[in-house]
């Protein structure tokens, strides 16, 4: 069983090294490509002002957070929840940097010693080179409904990123062409499948991919190319 956690944070500003702090953290669990509903969602008193531009992004002000716990009060709970999982975030260095800064303040080890880290932004760059790669842009490209996303709230961003991640990795888990004995449809349309252990995956070489891409670019109308009389 692979336990994955889609993680997002909101902050007082952009720079952890300059004293900005975490104000919201959400982690949404995926097990075997199914969103389980298990999640962690916390708000924090940042012990400092929030930049006006940051509030415009996430909609959170000092008045919303002054009665929330400080991060240090929840640090151990967060570390325990993340421990041993695959930590998945979009532009992960940003979230990791802030969490590590808060963990250091609380006397805890960095995330890299607690869990593995996957950056969906890197995945998206490899899949869609030269294109817009924000979470909004990926939702649009992959047909994921983001109409409820008025502000950049951590939990709703986790829900959207979970759908994006499952869609971007769908091909890795859909080689069955109807041959697998069990399927389970995720709410975004992704499939939970059980892959036979003896399946052999043969990947195209870089030269083969380049040749195929060059061939596709030459096609004017590939649907009718095989029979020009149609």
Protein topology:
Blueprint: E1 3-11, E2 22-31, E3 34-43, H1 52-58, H2 62-65, H3 71-82, E4 86-89, H4 92-105, E5 116-119, H5 120-127, H6 135-142, H7 154-168, E6 183-185, E7 191-193, H8 206-218
Parallel strand pairs: 1-4, 4-5
Antiparallel strand pairs: 1-2, 2-3, 6-7
Task: Name some characteristics of this structure.
35% helix, 5-stranded mixed beta sheet, 230 residues, alpha/beta, globular, two-stranded antiparallel sheet, disordered C terminus
Can you give a write-up of this model?
It is a single chain. Helices cover 35% and strands 19% of the residues. With 230 residues, the protein is of the alpha/beta class. The protein has a single domain (3-193), classed as Ribonuclease H-like superfamily/Ribonuclease H (Nucleotidyltransferase, domain 5, 2-Layer Sandwich), CATH 3.30.420.10. Strand 4 (86-89), helix 4 and strand 5 (116-119) form a beta-alpha-beta unit. It is globular. The termini are far apart. 27% of the residues are buried. The model is unreliable at 175-201 and 219-230 (pLDDT under 50).
Spatial strand order of the main sheet: 3-2-1-4-5
Number of H/I helices: 8
Order of helices and strands: EEEHHHEHEHHHEEH
Mass-distribution shape: globular
Mean pLDDT: 82
Number of domains: 1
- Tell me which CATH architecture applies here: 2-Layer Sandwich
Please report the first level of CATH classification, the CATH class: Alpha Beta
Rg over CA atoms, rounded to whole Å, is 21 Å
Low-confidence stretches: 175-201, 219-230
Fraction of residues in β-strands = 15-25%
Q: The CATH topology is what?
A: Nucleotidyltransferase, domain 5
């Amino acid at each position: 069983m692979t336990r994955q956690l889609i993680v997002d944070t909101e902050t007082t500003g952009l720079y952890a090294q300059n004293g900005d702090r975490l104000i919201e953290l959400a982690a949404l669990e995926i097990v075997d490509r199914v969103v389980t509903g298990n999640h962690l969602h916390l708000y924090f008193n940042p012990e400092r002002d929030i930049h006006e531009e940051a509030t415009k992004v996430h909609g959170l002000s000092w008045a919303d957070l002054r009665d929330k716990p400080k991060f240090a009060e929840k640090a151990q709970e967060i570390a325990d929840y993340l421990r041993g999982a695959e930590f998945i975030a979009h532009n992960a260095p940003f979230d990791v940097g802030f969490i590590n800064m808060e963990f250091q303040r609380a006397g805890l080890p960095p995330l890299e010693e607690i869990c593995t880290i996957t950056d969906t932004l890197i995945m998206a760059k490899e899949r869609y080179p030269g294109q817009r790669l924000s979470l909004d842009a990926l939702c649009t490209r992959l047909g994921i409904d983001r109409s409820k996303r008025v502000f950049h709230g951590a939990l709703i961003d986790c829900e959207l990123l979970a759908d994006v991640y499952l869609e971007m990795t769908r091909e890795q888990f859909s080689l069955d062409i109807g041959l697998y004995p069990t399927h389970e449809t995720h709410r975004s349309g992704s499939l939970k499948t059980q892959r036979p252990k003896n399946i052999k995956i043969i990947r195209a070489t870089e030269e083969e991919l380049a040749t195929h891409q060059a061939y596709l670019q030459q096609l004017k109308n590939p649907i009718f190319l095989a029979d020009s009389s149609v």
